[in-house]
Design brief:
oxidoreductase, single chain, binds fe (ii) ion, mainly alpha, cytoplasm
Length: about 260
């Protein structure tokens, strides 16, 4: 659905984000999963997600939402506004309205990658968390089925996951179908054939259905802006709206099926 191709990395000279993107707080004060003021709700969200996200559950949610047949149609901006009704309990860095996080991420990207050539990257920043609308009462999904981290299911849980210990209470942890290195998959089967834990990222991927060419490099760049732009200073939503509306118009149809 996104019309423009990602620029081939070999031909694009990119600014180096680590040199130019300066978070307003020390990087190691972000992503505190040990003793932040939001620690209780964050660890509860991760415990629920890691114990309840099984291979069968993720597949059932893919069936439910993958066909985009909820009957809900709305524009990208409407979805962004709907996001302001929800709170992401898994996030230790942000308790500001979600639309501010979208715009902070997008604006942090735009600072380091200015210009029309990268407008698709600005828009990526703006839309990246729209899948969290699943927390709105119109969808009414629980926190553990929407936010927190994304990880492959159907194979062994990787120890690098935050709160890895919670996986020990997931039924798949002791299921020999799923707890080997490759589990239900063949080696090199391709990421698009791997079932990921169900959540806002997987849901929005289903809606936009972008193939992941050249993707890893850009995902890594993107992560930095997503994770470290959550300073407390609010962005001016009304001032930024025209620019992002113009990008939405360029890359998306007027309404999407959700
Ligand atoms: Fe996210
Ligand atoms: Fe985000």
């Amino acid at each position: 659905m996104i019309k423009s191709e990602l620029p081939p990395s070999a031909t694009v000279v990119v600014a180096h984000p680590t040199l130019q993107f300066e978070p307003t707080k020390e990087v190691d004060t972000f992503r505190n999963y040990e003793d932040s003021h939001l620690q209780d709700s964050v660890s509860r969200a991760y415990r629920n997600s890691h114990t309840k996200q099984t291979y069968e559950y993720a597949k059932s949610k893919l069936d439910q939402y993958g066909s985009l047949s909820t009957g809900i149609n709305m524009s990208v901006w409407e979805a962004a506004e709907l996001l302001n009704t929800i709170v992401d309990e898994s996030d230790p860095d942000s308790d500001i309205p979600q639309i501010n996080h979208l715009l902070q991420t997008a604006e942090a990207i735009r600072k380091v990658y200015p210009g029309e050539e990268y407008d698709w990257f600005h828009l990526t920043g703006f839309i990246h968390d729209l899948g969290k609308i699943l927390l709105n009462p119109r969808f009414n999904e629980p926190q553990w089925a929407v936010v927190g981290d994304t990880f492959p299911v159907g194979c062994r849980f990787d120890e690098s996951n935050i709160f890895y210990e919670y996986f020990k209470d997931n039924p798949d942890y002791n299921n020999s179908l799923y707890n080997t290195e490759c589990g239900v998959y063949e080696k090199h089967c391709g990421l698009e054939n791997v079932v990921m834990s169900w959540g806002h990222d997987e849901y929005f991927y289903q809606i936009t259905n972008e193939q992941d060419q050249e993707m890893l490099e850009w995902v890594k760049k993107f992560n930095m802006f997503d994770l470290y732009s959550k300073d407390a200073e609010p962005v001016n939503v009304e001032k930024l709206k025209p620019y992002y509306q113009s990008l939405i118009k360029k890359y998306f149809p007027d309404t999407l099926r959700w």
